[in-house]
Specification:
There is one protein chain. By secondary structure, this protein is mostly helical. The chain has one domain: Rhodopsin 7-helix transmembrane proteins (Rhopdopsin 7-helix transmembrane proteins, Up-down Bundle). The protein is 79% helix and 3% strand. The chain is built from 7 helices and 2 strands. The chain has a two-stranded antiparallel ribbon. It starts with 10 loop residues before the first strand and ends with a helix. The mean pLDDT is 76. InterPro entries: GPCR_Rhodpsn (IPR000276), GPCR_Rhodpsn_7TM (IPR017452), Olfactory_GPCR (IPR050516). Pfam families: 7tm_1. It is found in: Cell membrane.
Length: 221
């Protein structure tokens, strides 16, 4: 039996939100504004936590890590999307797609684990306030972050291997398009889920009196 012909996909075409030429620049400006606002908020919070000694506590340490993970998550997909609005070349190579998906998935997974650790931190602060400085030591916080990074890497690599093998086994372009349309819908759902969780935790932090006080002290300097 003759071996069946197989075509290996090396690049994919990114569909835009709209094919109307007149909407590309306005959409670019809208999403650029959202991206810059997100980055300024995340990086600004990280800077405040790093600069002000009053915020050198476990809660703000994890909050800064969450802001950094969210910044990485946004930066993994948004720049390519912004380029797609203005560029005539709407293709992405398989290597770029794999790298983009890895960084997005790892950032989103890190955010999920960080929310669990932050919940434990608040549990200790409420139920054991006198032992809180001893239990939530700097060493334990660093160990939590290290564990999250290692566990996230292992989880993503295992899942990623299964996804990669599933993609390579597809023999028709129709099968590939269905796989990636399902993947895009999944990514949208994950983005909405983790984005909502992030704003539930970070928005109160940005309105916190200690954060506002740290911002005022930095501005006075």
């Amino acid at each position: 039996m003759a071996e069946e012909n197989k075509t290996l996909m090396t690049e994919f075409v990114l569909t835009r939100l709209s094919d109307l030429p007149g909407l590309q620049v306005p959409l670019f400006l809208v999403f650029l504004g959202i991206y810059l606002t997100t980055m300024m908020g995340n990086l600004g919070l990280i800077f405040l936590i790093w600069k002000d000694p009053h915020l050198h506590t476990p809660m703000y340490f994890f909050l800064g890590s969450l802001a950094f993970a969210d910044a990485c998550s946004s930066s993994s997909v948004t720049p390519k999307m912004l380029m797609n609005f203005l560029s005539k070349d709407h293709t992405i190579s398989m290597v770029e797609c794999i790298a983009q998906f890895y960084f997005f998935a790892s950032s989103a997974t890190t955010e999920c684990f960080l929310l669990v650790v932050m919940a434990y931190d608040r549990y200790v602060a409420i139920w054991n306030p006198l032992l809180y400085p001893v239990v939530m030591s700097t060493r334990l916080c660093i160990q939590f972050i290290a564990f999250i990074q290692v566990f996230t890497f292992m989880t993503i690599m295992v899942s990623y291997t299964h996804v990669l093998f599933a993609i390579l086994k597809k023999k028709s372009e129709n099968g590939m398009s269905k796989a990636f349309s399902t993947c895009s819908a999944h990514l949208l759902s994950v983005s909405l889920f983790y984005g909502t969780l992030f704003f539930m935790y970070v928005r109160p932090g940005l309105r916190n009196k200690e954060v506002i006080g740290a911002l005022r002290r930095i501005m006075k300097k």
